[in-house]
Amino acid sequence: MRYLILADLHSNLEALDAVLEDARGAYERVLCCGDLIGYGADPNRVLDWARANVNLAVRGNHDRGCAGLEDLEWFRPLARCVAVWTSRQLNAENLHYLRELPKGPLTVDTFQLAHGSPLDEDEYLTPRLAEIYLKEYAESELCFFGHTHKQEGFLLQRGGMARIEAPVKDAAARALRLERGSLHALNPGSVGQPRDGDPRAAYLLYDSGERLAEFRRVAYDIVGAQAKILRAGLPEHLAERLAAGR
Ligand code: ZN
Predict the structure, then answer these.
(1) 35: CA distance to ligand 1 center in Å?
(2) pTM of the predicted model, to two decimals?
(3) Which residues surround ligand 1, an ion (CB under 5 A)?
(4) How do residues 114-127 score in pLDDT, each as one tens digit?
(5) Which of 152, 149, 93 is closest to 124 using CA atoms?
(6) Cα–Cα distances in Å, from 112 out to 57, 96, 103, 244?
(7) DSSP helix, strand, coil percent of the chain (3-state; round to 5)
(8) For position 176, what pLDDT does the model report?
């Protein structure tokens, strides 16, 4: 089976459109590691697309916050401000969909999907935590996660843990054949708000039969997404950071 694996779309329709165009014909199923909304200006349109096209998604912290499932006191001021704006935009169908999103990790095929760490949906899977997770707790040989907005991966094999770097800046893709007997945690990167210094939208294709993962990046209409954020009256910083990829 060929999967399109997305994370951290964050209401960025321009980035999502570019990813779908770039990945066209390369997948049969769509999976999402959470945070469909928050930060960007198109929550309903991103959720309309998700309801119709995503086969399985786990919830992210922004999905939970915007769905009214938790006290926004825990959010940082910027995220809180956007969560309040976003929750006011949502129509009834999309609010219902958000509320029903399951908590990760979920098992799909032979792998797992999580938002943050598979052990705690709100925790960033840093290199240190990834090593602990892979050594002590991994329940499957492969887990996809999001939340850090960094396209990268971690690999545990006999020699210890290795870090898999995202595609270099001037490349569009990097393929990785997963060795049997090794454990992997892979972050497809953020579609809608990359924070790894590369402003291009990030995603991942995974062919479970071939055991082939491909990290991909695609340029999108950043100026268009920024203009919508400013028009919506959302904080300027949210528009600026899209261009910086930070
Ligand atoms: Zn996120």
Answers:
(1) 5
(2) 0.95
(3) 8, 35
(4) 999 999 999 999 99
(5) 149
(6) 11, 24, 12, 31
(7) 35, 25, 45
(8) 93
